[in-house]
Amino acid sequence: MSIALASTYAEPLSPRVSSGAVRPGQRLVRPTGPVEIASKQYLLYGEPVSSEIPLPVPVIRAGAPAATVIFRRGSGLSTPSGTPISVRRGPNGELLSERFQDASGDWIRHTNLGTFHINPELTCVDVYPEPGVADELLGLVLIGQISTFLLGRRGHPCLHASAVTVQGRTAVFVGTNGQGKSTMASCFLARGGTLLTDDALPLRLEGESVYGGPGLPLMKMWQDTANSLALPEELPSLPLLNKKVLVLDGHYPFAAAPARLHQLFVLSRYRLAPGASPEISQSRLGTREALAILLAQTSWSMLLTREEVAQLMPFYARVCRSLPVYVLRFPNGYEYQDQVHRHILDELAQP
Hints:
Elements: H1 2-6, E1 40-44, E2 47-51, E3 69-73, E4 86-89, E5 95-102, E6 105-110, E7 114-118, E8 124-129, H2 135-153, E9 158-160, E10 162-166, E11 169-174, H3 181-189, E12 194-197, E13 200-206, E14 209-212, E15 218-221, H4 223-228, E16 244-247, E17 259-260, E18 263-270, E19 281-284, H5 287-296, H6 306-322, E20 325-331, H7 337-348
Parallel strand pairs: 2-3, 3-8, 11-18, 18-20
Antiparallel strand pairs: 1-2, 4-5, 5-6, 6-7, 7-8, 9-13, 10-11, 10-12, 13-14, 14-17, 15-16, 19-20
Helix pairs in contact: 5-6
């Protein structure tokens, strides 16, 4: 089952246009007569979702609960009014995406990809692809940026993090790109852990405890990380990314419900000098430093306004008071994973 589900990534991107594909500013007239578009049910971050666009996660086959969010193909589009309230640019200043807001809700427009409209009730997303954009790309945006944006607006900010549960305790891993969040998660899965999330971790507060997840039952990883898992089949590649995707079904366990978080590790790996002994160390961050880390690692924070970022502060301050945050320094290399794994297990065992 997992191979069939993941194969949506394996095929080359076909330049097809959906029935609702329009350029921003154009209008598409609905055809006369009834039109039925098949929807499928999914579970995203613990929420039941109905989508007319195929998503790269397992379909709920039977007994699906009523969807709390609907993803639809848009049938007509007016250009969002006003100026964007947030803009995301690439390393060379090129426009990547922008967010608009008006009485009809939020609009998130991706250059050369499409526009996503979110209604004020946060229950429906209409998708207006640019001509030629494949469903595989739209599905990735919907399960990633759009879903985590919805969660944040609903009061569950998401960290760009991986998290695993082992022996009833849960560790969270954050860090800048290249520090090995997915690699750390795969290290624990290969040694009996359960994945809570690989990419986005929704947070919630219950009393003095912090709960997180669940995320999605899949992992995005570099080829060398995939090789370290010794999987029986070649993993398909992600569109536009030099990464592989692993759907966990049939491979590793996945936590489908929120879990209490016990420690958060900011990953800081270093290259070991020739002849030097590997050292693993950690230091606890103060509230101010930990708060800065959480803000910096908020999923798609570039879409948020200054006012929305400010509104996160009281929530994250409570998280920092309840969840210890450490900088974990460890040597780069798969040959040190057993040592790092044991170190984290010992720390998680602490009361």
